[in-house]
């Protein structure tokens, strides 16, 4: 599908929206990794991805198709997460190999980063905000590592033996 630039604002905005939809951090990282590879996607299978938020379902699928090795993320994506929070795109039946996904790296920092971003006023919002002040919350709810990591052995391999209580108590 291609959209020709007709010069109208409508098409310009549509084009921008389409670009934004695929301009997730994962896609930027993939573009960067493939930049000097002469469109050889094999390099991705030797890559681990480190990302602030769990990949969304779209990115999780792209990563699987490109055969990413592993993904490490900060906080879960409760609304769109494709690595266990909403759907399991990284594992389960499919034509492409599964990949492992590990949550919780700098999780508090990731959560606070997102909260700080979302309490800002959106200046581009079409309808002015009601003067409701958005409050920055500081409480961090616990996360179940058992939901994402299948066994204590696997958890220890990735997070270290000294952290095993985190798994056991989650
Ligand atoms: Zn995404």
From TrEMBL:
Ranges where the CMP/dCMP-type deaminase domain occurs: 1-85
Signal peptide per UniProt: none
One of the Pfam families matching this protein, by short name: dCMP_cyt_deam_1
Cited CDD domains: nucleoside_deaminase
InterPro entries named among the record's database cross-references: APOBEC/CMP_deaminase_Zn-bd, CMP_dCMP_dom, Cytidine_deaminase-like
UniProt keyword terms in alphabetical order: Hydrolase, Metal-binding, Zinc
PROSITE patterns: CYT_DCMP_DEAMINASES_1, CYT_DCMP_DEAMINASES_2
GO cellular component: cytoplasm; nucleus
GO term, biological process aspect, one: tRNA wobble adenosine to inosine editing
GO molecular function term, any single one: tRNA-specific adenosine-34 deaminase activity
Superkingdom to which the source organism belongs: Eukaryota
UniProt cross-references to SUPFAM superfamilies, sorted A to Z: Cytidine deaminase-like
Protein name: CMP/dCMP-type deaminase domain-containing protein
Organism: Magnusiomyces paraingens
Source lineage: Eukaryota, Fungi, Dikarya, Ascomycota, Saccharomycotina
């Amino acid at each position: 599908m291609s959209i020709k630039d007709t010069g109208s604002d409508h098409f310009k905005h549509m084009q921008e929206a389409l670009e934004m939809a695929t301009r997730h951090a994962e896609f930027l990282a993939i573009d960067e990794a493939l930049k000097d590879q002469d469109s050889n996607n094999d390099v991705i299978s030797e890559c681990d991805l480190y990302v602030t938020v769990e990949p969304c379902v779209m990115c999780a699928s792209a990563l699987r198709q490109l055969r990413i090795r592993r993904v490490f993320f900060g906080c879960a994506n409760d609304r769109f997460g494709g690595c266990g929070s909403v759907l399991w795109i990284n594992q389960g039946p499919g034509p492409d190999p599964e990949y492992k996904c590990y949550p919780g790296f700098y999780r508090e920092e990731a959560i606070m980063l997102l909260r700080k971003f979302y309490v800002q006023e959106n200046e581009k919002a079409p309808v002015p905000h009601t003067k409701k002040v958005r409050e920055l919350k500081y409480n961090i709810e616990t996360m179940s590592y058992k939901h994402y990591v299948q066994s204590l052995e696997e958890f220890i391999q990735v997070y270290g033996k000294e952290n095993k209580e985190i798994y056991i108590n989650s």
